[in-house]
Design brief:
This protein has helices spanning about 5-10, 20-45, 55-80, 90-115. The chain is mainly α and about 120 residues long. Helix 1 crosses helix 3 (about 55-80). It is elongated, with a radius of gyration of 18 Å. The N and C termini lie far apart (about 50 Å).
Length: about 120
């Protein structure tokens, strides 16, 4: 099964389940990305010291956010009916900003961790 076919099956809700399954997957990926991005940003700022480093968390947040956004857009494109029909359109619409927020938090964590790695006394230009 190709990657595009797997994404289409996931966006449509898979083989089992109702039409809301694809939207719930997108919401879950977006929320997971937001949580990972928030933790990575806290690591980059030095507020917490658990885990490996902020760069890994930032990249993971970007990946989870992109997956959530792609799944939500695919679900919106392939679902029939409107809001309130039980097809998960409202959940997919809510998943898009969650995924994009995860991407932004991951990017910010990467930027802050990059600035934290530079030596303080040396000007880089």
């Amino acid at each position: 099964m190709s990657a595009s076919a797997a994404l289409m099956v996931a966006a449509e809700g898979g083989i089992i389940g109702d039409g809301r399954t694809g939207a719930n997957l997108a919401l879950g990926a977006g929320l997971l990305g937001l949580a990972i991005g928030w933790l990575a940003l806290a690591r980059a700022d030095g507020r917490i010291s658990t885990g490996r480093n902020a760069r890994t968390g930032g990249m993971s947040a970007i990946a989870a956010g992109l997956v959530g956004t792609v799944l939500a857009v695919l679900h919106l494109a392939t679902s029939s009916g409107g809001p309130g029909t039980g097809n998960g359109l409202v959940g997919a619409i809510a998943a898009i900003p969650l995924g994009l927020g995860a991407v932004l938090l991951g990017r910010r964590a990467l930027t802050r961790s990059r600035h934290a790695d530079r030596p303080a006394g040396r000007m880089i230009g």
